[in-house]
Amino acid sequence: MKNNKKYKLEEIGGMNSEVLIKEWFFDNMDEVFDFCNREEICDDNGVRFRNSYDEGGWIEWGEYKDYVVNEGLILIEL
Q1: Contact of 73 with 13, CB cutoff 8 Å
Q2: Which residue, 9, 37, 64, 67, shows the most beta carbons closer than 10 Å to its own?
Q3: How much is the pTM?
Q4: What are the DSSP E strand ranges found in the chain?
Q5: pLDDT at 61
C-alpha cells in the first residue's frame, strides 16, 4: 500500500470519549496494520482490524480524516 500520509492511533476513554489515554504515530497504513496485528487489535465485533478495515469508512473533518477502529480506538489520517 503506497501513500505519503501519516497516521495517529488514539486510545480514548471517559464517558464521552474525552480522555486521551495513549497515542501512537505511523508513517503509513502498513505500519498501522503491522501494529494492530502485533497487538491483536480487533473491531467491536471481535474481527481483526486488518480484516475489518474498509477504505470507505473514513469520516472527514476539514483537512483531517478519522476512522473508528473500535469503541476505544480512533485512527487519524494527518
Answers
A1: no
A2: 9
A3: 0.87
A4: 7-13, 19-26, 59-61, 64-70, 73-77
A5: 87
The domains of the chain are located at 7-77
| Cα distance between residue 46 and residue 62, in whole Å | 31
Q: Which of 64, 59, 76, 69 is nearest to 23 (CA)?
A: 76
Q: Is the pLDDT of residue 3 over 70?
A: no
Query: Which pLDDT score is estimated for 17?
Result: 85
Cα gap 75→77, rounded to integer Å: 7
Contact between 65 and 77 (Cβ < 8 Å): yes
All cell numbers assigned to 10: 488514539
Residue 2 has pLDDT above 80, yes or no: no
* Cβ–Cβ under 8 Å, residues 29 and 48: no
Write the DSSP assignment of 37-58 as a string of letters. HHTT-B-TTS-BHHHH--GGG-
Helix (H, G, I), strand (E, B) or coil at 56: helix
